[in-house]
Every structure is written in structure tokens, then in C-alpha cells.
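batch_manifest entry 22 of 60
target: Endonuclease III
source organism: Streptomyces purpurascens
requested by: lab member K.T.
priority: normal
notes from requester: please return C-alpha cells only, no post-processing; we will run our own comparison against the previous entry in this batch. if the run fails, retry once and flag.
--- input ---
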Amino acid sequence: MGEQSPDGGRKTAKATERAAPSGKSTPPKKAAAKKGAAKKGAAKTAADEKAGAASKKASAKKAAPVKKAASVKKAPAAKKVTVAPKKATARIKGTAPAKAVVHPPGDESRTALVRRARRINRELAEVYPYAHPELDFDNSFQLVVATVLSAQTTDLRVNQTTPALFAKYPTPEDLAAANPEEVEEILRPCGFFRAKTKSVIGLSKALVEDFGGEVPGRLEDLVKLPGVGRKTAFVVLGNAFGRPGITVDTHFQRLVRRWQWTGETDPDKIEAAIGALFPKSDWTDLSHHVIWHGRRICHARKPACGACPIAPLCPAFGEGETDPEKAKKLLKYEKGGFPGQRLRPPQAYLDAGGRPAPPLGAG
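--- output ---
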């Protein structure tokens, strides 16, 4: 009974071979040790994962307030856009909504520029229906002398000075023969009185010697007179002879550049550039409209933007005072002219012969 049969021994060996991997048998103690180590490793990994998750959750809780604080940021203040007030455009009918810049630099076609320029002139014609030369004169001789005297001074100052001058020297012959010292004394309030005395006496002599005492009606003749340039010549031609011309004075130069009609700075080039935007028949009245607007509203230093009737059409809106009430205080006109100034309607110009035409209405 104590011995195993040979068959039973072979069966036990085969069973052992099937249980051992790779054809090798593993001792029972080592297998148990490996199994315990694997269980410990798995437990440690699970513990580490739980600890990591807890750590992440805690850090997320701590970081949450910072994230919330960072997300609550004040949006940057929007840049204030200045727009033309409705009050300033009340006198313009059918205009588009007011904008700060209607036509930005370089973003306007030639056709659009011509249309905008002509519309501005039409609007100004409604605002200043009686725009005219603001120098007082009764004939072409007085006009050319007064225009020469208006350089570097105001028309108001000239109008205060010329009555005494023309009372003493009513004709070119009288002024040509005048004593320079006496003329200087009369012209002293106009500034640069010595140079102006030389010019008016010189042009009077030229009129007597070269034109029979008459003011010529041609540009090429007028510019030959002492003290007379293209600006003065066009004032005389447009207002004494009815011949169109553009008067490029300081106001005109400032406004056409401010309105971006041209970028030229030379008076002759400005004259050519603006002349190309308008029909020739508009040139004289255009000059009056622009100059009147420059003297009354669109000043050099403090333009009254808030009271400007062409604000929606002006690319430079906002350079001056935009508040309507404050802008009103900057206006320098009263019923179309300066306070106390003698106004005349456009019909009060001279006729082709240089004689004053009878006024047909009140200014």
C-alpha cells in the first residue's frame, strides 16, 4: 500500500508540466511572493492616484478665486467719437446724418470731391446770400487802392481810413501828385504805411501815365501796377468789371485746405486747383462765400464747429468748439456782417464802366 503505481506517477508529472508556464515549473513560495508584491503595487498605485486627484481638487479650489478675479476685468473705455451736433446742421436741408469725418484723406474720388465742394458752396450761398467785398468803395479806382491797403490788416480798419484819403485825393491824378508824408500820416492806422504809401502813389502814377487815368479791365495790365498781384487783380476784375476770378487770401487758403479741396500751399497753385472744381461763372461768388465764412465762423485758431452750417460736409469737424452753445459765443457776425458795418446787397457792385450801380435793396 505504501508504493505508487507507475501510471499514477506519470499522471502527476504531466499535470505539473501543464500548470508551469513556458515549460518551467515555479516553486509555490516564489509564486505567492510575486502575487503579494503585485497586490501591494496595485494598492500603492490606487492610493497615489487618489492622493493626486485630491491634490488637484484642492489646488483647483484654491485657484478658482484667482481665475474669477482675473475674469472680472473692466473693459477699456470706448474712444469718444465727435459728431456734428444736430443744431449745427439745422439750416441744411436733406443732408446725410452728421459724421465726424465724412471723407477721410485719400478716400475720396475726384467726382466725390467736386460734388462735395459744390455742395458746400451752395450751402454757404444760402447762409451768406449777400456776400460781397467788405471794402467800401464807389468806383474801380477806390477799389484797387482799398484792396492794396487791406494787406496785413482788416477790411474794417481800411474802411475807417479810406474816407479821409479819398476825400483829399479823389482821383488817380490827385493821388499821383500827393505829398508822400501827408499820405503816410493818413495811412498810418493801416500798418506798413510807408510801403503802402509808395504803392498807392505808384499805382496812381501808372494809371495816369499808362492807362489815361482809368483802371484797366485786364489781368495782365492790372498786375503791372505797383502793389497789385493776382489776388488784388481778381478782386477788381470780379467786383468792378464782372469778370470771374478767385481771390486767394489768407482765409481762402486756410479753408480750402481745411476742407481738403486741395493740399497746395502756393496761392497760384491753389487758384488753379480750386478753379478746376467749379465752373468759371462761380469763381467770384465762391471767393466771397469762403472768405465770409472764414471771417465769421471758421476761424484760424478757434473755429466754431458746433455752430457751422456745413459741419456734416467738413472733414475737419472737431478741430474747434463742438458744443453749440459755446460755439455761438465764437461767432463774429451779426445779421450777415460785423456789428456796425455798412452792408450792401450784391447788386450794389459797379457796372462795366467802373461807375457805382444803384442799390436795389437793403443789406
